[in-house]
Q: What sequence folds into this?
């Protein structure tokens, strides 16, 4: 069998994304390496979602380049993403996962066991037959995580997976993220929750107005940020 191609590291070299005359991302030079989760933080509109879409290969930079393990390619094999507002298929919980498994090319006779395993992994095994659209927000996020894991990704992008969740649901999602990361999957996650960044991140990428203002190991970012913007953000003051 062919060895699966690797996606890591993902290297952004002076990458920019423009919409007309507006630079949504500018001069992004960044290396996303294997290891503990990389967490993206920054104010609303700073470019976190756009950076994730670039890293997924859903978007091509207007200038500069993004490479996956040295390759420029559009194939999204072994990359998966959970969107900021995931959309549930009008099916049962199990049907949502079965669909993702089919899309990932898993043969029919293997799907039911995989569905069970994935639901167990995200703690939804008791809701197998519930229509997915009737799940709570937290349960929908966990189902979206299970669907993404159905692709057996090497790298998983999460766009604010706990944005509107209460502490218990947030903890449930963070526990899954920890387990997935411990199993060797590279997590790249956007969040507004600084506590979450401290709890989960190996390194922090801080964006302001489309630029990477700081990229540092988590402890260093929080104890001794080197830019005034990061220091302000870490204090909990508004960065505008
Ligand atoms: N296709 C587009 N055309 C024009 N502007 C866009 C487009 N996509 C994104 N933008 C703008 O680019 C900026 C960055 O958006 P992005 O969604 O990446 O930010 P974000 O950091 O994820 O914000 P949030 O924290 O609110 O999710 C925003 O001002 C947004 O309105
Ligand atoms: Mg966003």
A:
């Amino acid at each position: 069998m062919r060895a699966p191609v690797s996606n890591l590291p993902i290297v952004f070299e002076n990458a920019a994304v423009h919409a007309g005359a507006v630079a949504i991302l500018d001069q992004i030079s960044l290396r996303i390496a294997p290891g503990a989760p990389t967490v993206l933080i920054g104010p609303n509109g700073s470019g976190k979602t756009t950076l994730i879409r670039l890293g997924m290969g859903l978007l091509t930079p207007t200038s500069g380049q993004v490479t996956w393990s040295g390759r420029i390619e559009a194939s999204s094999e072994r990359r998966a993403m959970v969107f900021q507002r995931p959309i549930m298929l009008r099916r049962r919980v199990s049907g949502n996962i079965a669909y993702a498994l089919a899309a990932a090319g898993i043969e029919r006779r293997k799907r039911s066991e995989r569905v069970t395993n994935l639901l167990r992994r995200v703690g939804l095994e008791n809701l197998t037959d519930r229509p997915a659209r009737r799940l709570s927000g937290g349960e929908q996020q966990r189902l979206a995580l299970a669907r993404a894991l159905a692709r057996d990704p090497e790298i998983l992008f999460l766009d604010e997976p706990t944005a509107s969740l209460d502490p218990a649901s947030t903890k449930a999602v963070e526990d899954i993220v920890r387990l997935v990361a411990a199993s060797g999957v590279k997590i790249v996650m956007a969040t507004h929750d600084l506590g979450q960044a401290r709890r989960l991140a190996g390194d922090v990428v801080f964006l302001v107005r489309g630029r990477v203002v700081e990229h540092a190991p988590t402890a260093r970012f929080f104890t001794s940020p080197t830019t005034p913007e990061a220091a302000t953000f870490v204090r909990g003051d508004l960065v505008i």
Q: What stands out?
A: The mean pLDDT is 94.
